[in-house]
Amino acid sequence: MSLAKARSQKAVLLANIGQLLTLHAAKTEAGPRRGHALKDLGIITGGAVLCLAGRIVSVGTTKDALRDPWLKRNRRMVTEVDCAGKVVLPGFVDSHTHPVFTEPRLVDFEKRIEGASYEEIAAAGGGIRSSLDGVRKTAKAALASKVVTALEAMAAHGTTTVEAKSGYGLTVESELKSLEAIKEAASRWPGTVIATLLGAHVVPKEFQGCSQKYVELVCKEMIPRAARRKLAQFVDVFCDKGAFTPEQTEQVFAASKREGLSVRAHMGQLSETDLTRFLQFNPASFDHMDHVSDDDVLELAKRDTLATLVPGANYFLGLKKYPDARRLIDAGVPVALATDYNPGTSPTISMPMAMSLACTHMKMSPAEAVSAATINGAWALRVAERKGSIEPGKGADLAVFDVNDYREIPYWFGANHCSMTILNGVVTSTK
Ligand code: NIG
Ligand code: FE
Fold it and tell me: Ligand 1, atom 3: nearest CA belongs to which residue?
């Protein structure tokens, strides 16, 4: 459904909300949430939210909402949803996903169970490179349908804004096709999609031994063509051993800047990299961050670049260690949570699952997990002025959970308690 169509939807009033998590910003706050502010969910009991034409128009108690003169006059044309005994929060902002792929990687899954590591599997012909053929051979429309299926499943679990990367084609043609598939899928889904070019995911086998030639292709062809056709808002690089070097990452970032695109990177997943050299490019986020130095933690605490943690990848790879969220949060680094939905390391579309892992394995409190999955995800995508909290003027993106207390969202892991999602004002019931 197009946004224009979404905006023509009826007014919606969610009333009698057991717990309304507004994530309302403190007046003094500018920039992403960090430290204690991550715990501030702006909870209203007995709350109400009125949405009109795809936007939130009022937020408060149900008592106050029902006194509103506009609502009194127009009550008949408003769809009312009784949310007694339920939790309503901003729709999740999943700021890191790789939805353009064709097949699950079941051989990798079994090999890993038998003891092979992520790098060993990649070296043996599995890993990211084994997903390329499927995407290269598949038509745009079929890829778009796969993406729509994933977006719909995400919405059924409470997600309303999704960052979607290319990165499983790795030729100019198939990367642009992947971005076009994302664009087509976005037009068929009422939520919001932010597209990212991940041409620098790994060096494809045609360029093995001459990775620099591939980087030049990314910089001189993929990025300019994606930018010219406005197919991507961000450019991402997998900067790590077995992927791209810090020098190559800088080259990709510089090319992105020249074309007016913002940057983000997979960083510190397998090994530590000095981050200071990248800060001149003002990256929106560094994602994974399993390995990061003390100096870089101190530096990031002064900046608005998010550390986006994706514990689904650690879980699915069967790792004992998770990113040290406490060290980052306690130092003042703004953190976001995302699914990293992809066929190799994190085949989950569920933000509640990512939140549950963040609580149990990274010792984030449920409140911190909510902020990281909503408002800070919005900051990581640079859409915080319109997404990530329930405030008048922002997009009508809401998730309704059939639970009494928001802490039950990460608590009941593996079960979906989301009963309704509102995406740019469009109501989708999931139960
Ligand atoms: O975020 N690390 C790089 N990219 C993905 C993995 C992709 C894959 O294995 O297919 C990640 O974990
Ligand atoms: Fe990823």
Answer: 238
